[in-house]
Amino acid sequence: MENVVVEGMAGLDFSAVITALTSAVTPAQIITLIAGLISFGIVYVFMWFGIRKIVKIFRSAVMGGRITV
Questions:
Q1: Model pTM above 0.70
Q2: 29-59 burial string, b = 16+ CB within 10 Å, else e?
C-alpha cells in the first residue's frame, strides 16, 4: 500500500505552484515583513518591561507606603 501512495505522488507536478509563489512574493516584501516583525517585537518587549516596572512601583507603593521610581 505504501508503494501505491509513493507512486501516486510521483506524478504530481508542482512547477506551476512554485512559479506562482516565486513571482508573487518578492525579496523586498520578505525584508519588509521581517523588519515589521522585528520592530513589533522590540516595541512589545519594551512595553512588557514598562508594564512590569509600573506594577512593581504600584505594588511597592501599596505595601511600603511610598512611591519610588
A1: no
A2: eeeeeeeeeeeeeeeeeeeeeeeeeeeeeee
